[in-house]
Amino acid sequence: EPEVTQTPSHQVTQMGQEVILRCVPISNHLYFYWYRQILGQKVEFLVSFYNNEISEKSEIFDDQFSVERPDGSNFTLKIRSTKLEDSAMYFCASSEVKGAGELFFGEGSRLTVL
Amino acid sequence: KNQVEQSPQSLIILEGKNCTLQCNYTVSPFSNLRWYKQDTGRGPVSLTIMTFSENTKSNGRYTATLDADTKQSSLHITASQLSDSASYICVVSVDSGGYQKVTFGTGTKLQVIP
Fold first, then answer.
1. Contacts 24+ apart (CB under 8 A), A39-45
2. Does B93 touch chain A (CB under 8 A)?
3. Could you say which of B31, B36, B45 has the minimum Cβ distance to residue A100?
4. What is the pLDDT along chain B (114 residues), one digit of tens a residue?
């Protein structure tokens, strides 16, 4: 069964360092998303991406964040200068179609900022 | 403001028993409602998805209901198993012209004990 894959599964970094989280969405999907979940809290929307551009972003997704689809398969989230409060589980998701289409999540990348 | 509230926050039941989880939402305009199961430290996995016209959907021992008039949904788990221990998240979508804008509920943490 096709799945969304994310790497790394866990990354520990020092405050102020740049981090890139990678995602490989399901191959025929067109819409891509990043979410985050701080430990013990609910999942929060960060950004949606379609046709090589950001469709929408939340207030969390400030200038420190960026997304890119560098090739036909990868979808990356970059945090330019990490802060302690960026420590969270980051989930990538993708969907094939509009509206009521299934939203598939990856297993997540756990980011710990020290 | 779009909100999704779930109850109870946590629940402990004996193996083999049934349980019902609740979700109330104020999301508008409504597109669809999903229930996800999230094991600790892992990505959410879809259980059911319902659009406006559907009021019940089953997936094995999971049955979701939707009342779009009262903006309420429930997830009923029948004959619970130890592997059902997880967080169950209600997710409501707005169709924003193609991509899915979703609001996550806070989740219900279910623990099934022998």
1. A39/A87, A39/A88, A39/A89, A42/B89, A42/B104, A42/B105, A42/B106, A42/B107, A43/A91, A43/B44, A43/B89, A43/B104, A44/B104, A45/B101, A45/B102, A45/B103, A45/B104
2. yes
3. B31
4. 778 999 999 999 999 999 999 999 998 888 889 999 999 888 899 999 898 889 999 999 999 999 989 999 999 999 999 999 999 999 998 876 666 678 899 999 999 999
